[in-house]
Amino acid sequence: MTTSPDAARPAVPAPRRKSRHKFTGKAWWPWLKRGASVVFFALVIGLLVSQARHIEWHQVLTSLQRYPLTAAWGAVLLALTSFALYSTFDLLGRHYTDHTLPAPTVMLVTFISYAFNLNLGSLVGGVAFRFRLYSRLGLPTGVITRIMSLSMLSNWMGYLLLGGLIFSLRPPAVPADWGIDTAHLRLIGFALLAGAAGYLGVCVFSRQRVFWLRGHEIDLPSVRLAGLQLVMGATNWLVMSGIIFILLQHRIEFSAVVSVLLLAAIAGVITHIPGNLGVLEAVFVALLSHQMARHELLAALVAYRVIYYLMPLGIATVAYLIIETRAKKASSPGKQAA
């Protein structure tokens, strides 16, 4: 009597299939995030609609026509300062990764990606354009990921530092129906400061210096580099606030402008609206319309959007097309044969 090889093997129980409808483990977390985003998005849309109903739009246009040129030129100079500063963020990444691209080239790539980031969102500008341009310039994916991670950390760690200081020391007055008061904002400020201090602490004291993110190696920066990230990021947020402060013609306290811009920025991130379109204006009108007429506030914010969003986008588009055209010419068959 012969036995088949399959019969001699011990029976292996079939693996149990996990129920797709079972709500266990960490399955609740994505649903909670989506629910919170939907609620926040609905609140922002409601805020936009409620504010738009009470705005005299013809007065906004009149205010723009009468806008003083000195304020506009001052805002343009600060916008140039902000873009120049942000364009050095990837120079930190150049030092961090030891790649050899020239500094002007790195700054141009950062400028282009930042301009598109402001208008089209971080996935398009901060991620897609950086990968596209740096890949064209010969950098491998792992290096690009490390540069991008360091740059984004510089921006948001600076946000934590500045937001923590502003909200804990000079929190803005918020409307009563928002369900949050200055005491809550102070607590948020302390939490933001703790986050910034925690990042510095990890960079100083962590024994593990290498981490892996989706198959890419990430090294912890030195404490000097981390400190530069916080200072440069916070300074850029201050310069952005200064642009709006000048466009508001110094009629609202600078600390209030900083705090409202920081609140509007995080509202735009949560709602995923490209360019923070409408969210920035709604938050400023909701929080500062008791200090300044709504049509004058909106006129200043329209000027800010033109100076800080649209004008750099036009320049970045031309620069990007030039880079793409040169890259195509360099890789054309006739060029390769020559």
Key terms for this structure?
about 350 residues; mainly alpha; about 0% strand; disordered N terminus
Write the layout of secondary structure elements.
Elements: H1 5-8, H2 28-53, H3 57-65, H4 69-86, H5 89-97, H6 103-120, H7 123-136, H8 141-169, H9 182-205, E1 210-213, E2 216-219, H10 223-247, H11 254-271, H12 279-288, H13 294-330, H14 333-337
Antiparallel strand pairs: 1-2
Helix pairs in contact: 2-12, 3-13, 4-10, 4-13, 5-6, 5-8, 6-7, 6-13, 7-8, 8-9, 8-10, 8-11, 9-10, 10-11, 11-12, 12-13
Structure description:
This protein has 338 residues and is mainly α. It has one domain (40-327). The protein contains 14 helices and two strands, in the order αααααααααββααααα. The protein has helices at 5-8, 28-53, 57-65, 69-86, 89-97, 103-120, 123-136, 141-169, 182-205, 223-247, 254-271, 279-288, 294-330, 333-337, and strands at 210-213, 216-219. The chain has a two-stranded antiparallel ribbon with strand order 1-2. The protein is globular. The relative contact order is 0.13. The model is unreliable at 1-5, 12-25 and 43-59 (pLDDT under 50).
Total beta strands: 2
Radius of gyration: 25 Å
Tell the overall outline: globular
Mean pLDDT: 79
Distance between the termini: 77 Å
* Individual helix count: 14
Number of domains: 1
Short recap of the structure:
The protein has 338 residues and is mainly alpha-helical. It has helices spanning 5-8, 28-53, 57-65, 69-86, 89-97, 103-120, 123-136, 141-169, 182-205, 223-247, 254-271, 279-288, 294-330, 333-337, and strands spanning 210-213, 216-219.
